Amino acid sequence: MPSGSVSPIPLPSSHRAKIDTCIVTGCSSGIGKALSQLIASKGQRLVATARKLSALDYLPDDNPNILKQALDVTSQTSVDAAIAAALQRFGRLDVVVNNAGYTLYGDAENASDEDARKCVETDFWGMVRVSKHALRILREENPKTGQQGGVILNVSSMGGRIAFPGNAFYHASKFAMEGFTEALSKEVRPEWNSKSYPFDLAIY
Ligand SMILES: NC(=O)c1ccc[n+]([C@@H]2O[C@H](COP(=O)([O-])OP(=O)(O)OC[C@H]3O[C@@H](n4cnc5c(N)ncnc54)[C@H](OP(=O)(O)O)[C@@H]3O)[C@@H](O)[C@H]2O)c1
Asked: Which InterPro entries match (predicted)?
């Protein structure tokens, strides 16, 4: 990405200059893994999540600021359990990163309903599930341990703004993510001190 094209995403002002609690979905590889390593290296509290816990072996077991947690974003039970575990350990969430996602390659016409729905279920509905539960935590649980509010970052894509052949259900999911995120950010009341942002990634 060209340097200077990305503005820092601001935390609500009262969240700056202190230890934040971040939860990241899809930390087994790629961007989620790199982000987890970065957050851990900065001494922030991290809830690193993955479908298989063994995929988080790259993180230490004995760091009190790190919770490794199983999370499949297609399961409401799993989302609820992961957020409950994060609250039990750290008492709050400040930054929620919806990173888990994948693309389904191939012509739309030839994709099975099952495969297409699984892609949208993960990339769009998974993000919705986590965002809705997390927003309640930012608004109602965070005040019990300090400042109300926080930030929800939804990892979108250039493919959430323009579409190419061969990835129709991925694009559909990311376009939906962009719309949901924009609408949610306009629904959040200023006094909740919370924001939701799309984070449009593009690899050049
Ligand atoms: N890399 C790029 O070029 C690029 C560009 C634009 C946007 N993005 C976005 O960036 C995000 C991360 O992509 P990546 O490139 O880092 O890909 P990646 O290495 O394949 O990582 C995807 C992650 O999502 C997880 N995941 C898949 N299904 C899940 C589920 N049901 N529940 C929980 N986690 C699940 C995977 O876990 P498992 O190991 O369990 O499958 C993996 O940890 C995605 O949302 C992607 O759309 C990537």
From this structure: NAD(P)-bd_dom_sf (IPR036291), SDR_fam (IPR002347), SDR_oxidoreductase (IPR051911)
